Amino acid sequence: MARIAVFPGSFDPLTxxxxxxxxxxxxxxxxxxxxxxxxxxxxxxxPVEKRIEWIERVFGDLPTVTVSTYSGLTVEYCRKIGAxxxxxxxxxxxxxxxxxxxGQINKQLEPSVETVFFLTTPExxxxxxxxxxxxxxHGGDPLPFIPIGLKLI
Length: 153
Ligand code: ADP
Prior knowledge:
Blueprint: E1 4-9, H1 16-25, E2 31-37, H2 48-58, E3 65-70, H3 74-81, E4 85-90, H4 93-109, E5 114-119, H5 129-137
Parallel strand pairs: 1-2, 1-4, 2-3, 4-5
The structure holds adenosine-5'-diphosphate (ADP).
């Protein structure tokens, strides 16, 4: 059976930290769906269409990586597309505590889905999408933090 993974998040916007996780996960899975969770109550900073376009551009060289959107429970989405793995990145101990509870609850909701964690490489451990949004809001230069070749604006 194909090893299908979902990498869920808001990717608002995609950062070099996300990119690094995806590229490191590629050898482990037959297919990876970068899945943008859509929330009717939370609009997000960048339109979902833009986030999709940037992800497609950055991973255009990787035929096993696809971008998609979903709403509702991540494990439901996994069930729908036949994914048995959820990929998440761990930057800090705070991430660990947060991810541990989500991972344990997801396991209870859907025992067939395994969450796989990647430790962030040190150069990206301080990087979050929300910091990138703040830099943009205040007129700073986001380019060092987003994948090479992308222009967000
Ligand atoms: P969320 O919407 O849950 O905050 P994000 O869209 O920011 O999620 O990120 C999705 C996933 O990418 C999460 O597992 C998060 O830990 C991981 N991630 C975010 N930034 C980085 C980074 N700089 N290095 C490694 N992983 C990261």
